[in-house]
Specification:
This protein is mainly α. The chain contains 16 helices and no strands. It has a domain of 128 residues. The longest helix has 30 residues. It starts with 6 loop residues before the first helix and ends in a 6-residue tail after the last helix.
Length: 330
């Protein structure tokens, strides 16, 4: 299926990358999460699953020759990750002491690296001529049980990538995207599963491997339930809002900037994850003020700064290739 722009999904992309920034902003304002813990827990319950589900929905280049696909995705995903990692390592070398560069090199821009791995894995999966549903179930199981499969959440996020692909393949959003009943069901599932996890003090991240599957199967299942239901709830909510907002100038701008997701992710990694914690000090004790005013406004400011920087940097073809995989230069 051709990769066609869908305005409300571009808005969902912008919303998702805003949540990524907000989660990181909360982390550097309140590293111990004593004040912002509830907001942080809410964001991390579904925002990366939603990010990966959207990537699976728009998966492309799978019908190209393997080397052509590999080259395209390496340029689009790995090159920005390498550039971002290099910039952050240089900054950390000069401005911080006792830096674990090994962890920085592995973990920096981790989402882009994981997505690159998924493209390769998914490319070969589609070459296997068996029932698609069975194939993807077996693939998820393999990822769950292989050694080090939880590195960078590779095994944890793959079902969301596949889920996004299936949504597109079976036209689920086209058929049911405006359904109020489905929206309400996803809201209830998200609310109940999130409250269950909060009530039982389940950590934001549960490693998925053979041992945890054996010992914490129900918890992992609830984690997936909250991730999928939360992702679908916000997709459906914005889809419903599209009926009333489509055509409005601000909404159209949001859809336009939703195409800048990769660039925003790279720049916020440099700014929010690495630089801002060194130059900004906070002494915030008011939970409501932090969660609903300060952190959201700072995150919006960062989002706007990233958009401006993308426009400036992408005016140079070479910088656009290095920083953003050549996606934005005209």
């Amino acid at each position: 299926m051709a990769n066609k722009r869908i305005e409300y999904l571009d808005v969902v992309k912008l919303f998702t990358i805003y949540l990524v920034i907000l989660g990181h902003v909360v982390g550097f304002i309140d590293p111990t999460l004593e004040i912002s813990g509830s907001l942080h827990y809410f964001i991390y319950s579904f925002h990366m699953p939603l990010f990966m589900l959207l990537c699976g929905y728009f998966v492309t280049s799978m019908n190209k020759p393997f080397l052509e696909m590999l080259s395209k995705k390496a340029k689009q995903l790995l090159l920005p990750a390498i550039t971002c990692t290099a910039i952050c390592c240089v900054y950390l070398y000069f401005f911080r002491t006792h830096v674990n560069f090994r962890d920085e090199i592995i973990g920096n821009s981790w989402f882009l690296k994981v997505l690159f791995v998924y493209y390769i894995f998914f490319y070969f999966l589609r070459k296997i001529k068996i029932n698609e549903w069975l194939l993807f179930i077996v693939a998820c199981i393999i990822l769950f049980v292989i050694p080090k499969g939880s590195t960078l959440q590779v095994n944890l996020l793959f079902p969301y990538f596949i889920g996004g692909y299936m949504l597109r393949k079976y036209n689920v959003l086209e058929k049911y995207g405006k359904s109020s009943i489905l929206l309400f069901i996803m809201f209830l599932l998200f609310l109940v599963s999130l409250l269950y996890l909060c009530y039982n003090n389940i950590p934001e991240y549960v490693p998925v491997n053979y041992n945890t599957l054996h010992d914490c199967f129900f918890i992992i299942l609830m984690r997936y339930l909250v991730g999928f239901s939360g992702s679908l709830f916000f997709i459906l909510l914005i889809s419903k809002s599209d009926i009333f907002l489509s055509g409005m100038k601000l909404y159209n701008k949001m859809a336009l900037y939703g195409r800048y997701t990769l660039g925003i992710y790279v720049l916020q990694t440099i700014l929010v994850v690495n630089i801002f914690p060194d130059i900004v000090e906070w002494n915030m004790q008011n939970e409501i003020l932090l969660n609903f005013v300060v952190a959201p406004l700072i995150s919006l400011f960062v989002l706007l700064i990233c958009i401006i920087m993308i426009k400036l940097l992408s005016s140079s073809r070479n910088l656009d290739i290095l920083m953003f995989g050549g996606q934005y230069s005209k």
